[in-house]
Amino acid sequence: MARVALENVVKRFGRTVAVDNLNVDIGDGELVCLLGPSGSGKTTTLRMIAGLERPDEGRIRIDERVVNDVPPRDRDIAMVFQFPVIYPGTSVRDNLEFPLKQRGYGDEEIKKRVEEIAEILKIRPVLHEAASDVNISERQRVAIGRALVRKPKALLLDEALTNLESGLKLMMIAELKRLHEELHQTMIYVTHDQSEALMMADRIAVFDLGVLQQYDTPESLYSDPKNLFVAGFIGSPPMNFLECKLDPKRGILGVQDFEIELSRSRLEKTPSSPEVILGIRPEHISIHKMCQKKDHVKGRVDMAQFVGDHVSLDVELDGRTLKVLSPSSVEFEPGEEICMQFEEFRLFDRKSEQMIG
Amino acid sequence: MALDDVSLEIDDGEFVCLLGPPGSGRTTILKLIAGLESPDSGEILIGDRIMNKLPPQERGVSVMFESLALYPHLNVHGNLAFPLSKMNMSHGEIDENVREVANLLRIDQLLDRRPAQLSGGERQRVALGRALVKKPRVLLLDEPLGHLDAKLRLYARVEIKKLQKQLKQTVVMSTFDSLDAISIADRIALMKEGKIAQFGTPREIYHKPKNIFVASSVGSPPMNLIKCILKEIDRHVCLSVLGFEVDCTKHMARLSDRIGSEVTLGIRPSDVRASKTPPGIESQVFAVEPMGHEKIVTLKVNENVILVKTSLRTSFAPGENVWIQPDVDRISLFDEAGQSIV
């Protein structure tokens, strides 16, 4: 197990800057997700850690050792891919033994380690079965087991659970977390699915266009997104954005024809112009059938969808559509006029797109 | 047997989802309605007319498949015009219909593009447009959202439902995704092994499942199912859940003749209250997973796993002891055969 650090790392492909001056420090035994849309640089980052790509600038450290020039096999890192690779015509046990035999471990040690990892991954009952015969979740576990059996310094997972159907995925996420806690294993997981990352990670590095946008705990990314990109990428349904006008003297935020009072302490930074962007999560808008307070914002229900614990509403506000999650105990009809109260929201500078309060 | 004595009546202008695991018979129903398969017995009616002997093209039914099956060599206009080319229509009429449906789906700017030049969402709309251009009496959608990623899917659900309401189009959609079904459908036919396990509104399916299969088919994470014993204590009907007694007197009328029998308690993760102090079922926190504005807490009581949804403000840590209680107003109870009793 080890600490992994990237210092001022740059990677270019031709003229494209795939990863731009990246600094990330992954603690010993930490589970970190690299999250972002496709082309954001997350997979390139993972491949650089694995040694499959070489950075053009900067340093990659595993523990204190700079590994830029160390070939993949000498980095003591294991990788699991989206589609589990199983050696055909072999048993589950063969698959788990393989990395150890390759490294010349003795028979006793091999037996001990294989039994140990099979126990942890709950694949002991299928050890003797043909690897191609076990079900998809067991196959993914075999792939993870094969990666873990030689106790690598870090385990890298490239969208390893993306292909599983949702029920199985939830189960495997819980399993992976349990494994992580039991083994205190450093893990780096790449995904484009924000809900996977939120559930799993100790910390998440959010990427866009090759640039690290924010590196934080799931809770902080959700409640204190640093900029518009992170705010819009984390959360489902995503955060709503509205263009507003700030009147700092009166402490008033103008949202279309409505005015929301704003305490002066709310603003953490001074905006570059009074035109700001309000970001509000669907679950932070409460809906009332009657307008009672003066800072209520009127809207019209465009669509109501039952989603179990909640109703997901599309509310129209002067030609803009807001997503709202409301408790499913109240029913709404399309066309109904309602009032919204903005319980918790964030403000962003329109020019810099940074959070200002 | 692919389908076993299925009766299903879909109203004019209704949106019905056929929900079920692969092989449960939902695609067979679509094929039967479309005329791509014929039933061994029973009747299929559209309007008042029996369809059994009618070929597919005379049924007034359109199908959109998951694969979308757009013609790669034709542009969007060509793809939309194709279903009309076999009908007795002038070029002018065809063009008018194509433009009408293109406007409706907001793809009128894309008419000259080929499928390969379109985004996933745009391709989806072209396929939907091609199914709608004939103005079918019934639109059949076979897993139309299967290939979309989570974010696009969220918008596609709204689009499809809005369009359906606007056109008052009768739609039958097949899906294995329970969230697709409960968020889009007016009614859901939940299928299992060629039979309809329950046919009802999303709220009925979610809150009043008829049996354990239905209960465990919708909701993510799924409903907790825990074996319990019904007891009578001081004239109160109580549910003995993992060593804790839950007073079920308010459900007395349905339970009084089942005292002493084993039942299965069904409770959704959002309907369990968790506290750091007794009373309640004593359990241990196994994992905590934040999901935006809420957390999913996995608890263990001996070998039983119970999932609880809590607000982001709670601070449960792995290994900690937690006491939980089900909300009695929200419980489901199932008998030994798995059928609902409360």
List keywords for this structure.
heterodimer, A: 357 residues, alpha+beta, Rossmann fold, OB fold (Dihydrolipoamide Acetyltransferase, E2P), 2 domains, 6-stranded mixed beta sheet, 5-stranded antiparallel beta sheet, 24% helix, elongated, B: 342 residues, 18 strands, 25% helix
Write a structural description:
The complex is a heterodimer of chains A (357) and B (342). Chain A is α+β, with helices and mostly antiparallel strands and 357 residues long. Chain A folds into 2 domains: 4-226, P-loop containing nucleotide triphosphate hydrolases (Rossmann fold, 3-Layer(aba) Sandwich), CATH 3.40.50; 240-349, Beta Barrel (OB fold (Dihydrolipoamide Acetyltransferase, E2P)). Chain A has helices at 42-50, 92-102, 107-120, 136-148, 166-183, 194-200, 218-223, 228-233; strands at 4-13, 16-26, 31-35, 57-62, 65-66, 77-80, 154-158, 187-191, 203-208, 211-216, 240-247, 252-255, 258-261, 275-280, 285-288, 297-306, 310-317, 320-327, 337-342, 346-349. Chain A has a 6-stranded mixed β-sheet with strand order 6-7-8-3-9-10, sandwiched between helices. In chain A, α2 crosses α3 (107-120) and α2 packs parallel to α4. The longest helix of chain A is centred in the middle third of the chain and has 18 residues, at 166-183. Chain A is elongated, with a radius of gyration of 25 Å. The two termini of chain A are 39 Å apart. The model of chain A has no long low-confidence stretch (mean pLDDT 90). With 342 residues, chain B is α+β, with helices and mostly antiparallel strands. Chain B has 2 domains: 15-210, Rossmann fold, CATH 3.40.50.300; 224-334, Nucleic acid-binding proteins (OB fold (Dihydrolipoamide Acetyltransferase, E2P)). Chain B contains 9 helices and 18 strands. Chain B has helices at 26-34, 76-85, 91-104, 120-132, 150-167, 178-184, 202-207, 212-217, 252-255; strands at residues 15-19, 45-46, 49-50, 61-64, 138-142, 170-175, 187-192, 195-200, 224-233, 236-241, 244-247, 262-267, 272-275, 281-290, 294-301, 304-311, 321-326, 332-334. In chain B, strands 4-5-6-1-7-8 form a 6-stranded mixed β-sheet, with helices on both faces. In chain B, β14 and β15 form a beta hairpin. The model of chain B has no long low-confidence stretch (mean pLDDT 92). The interface between A and B is large, with 37 and 36 residues.
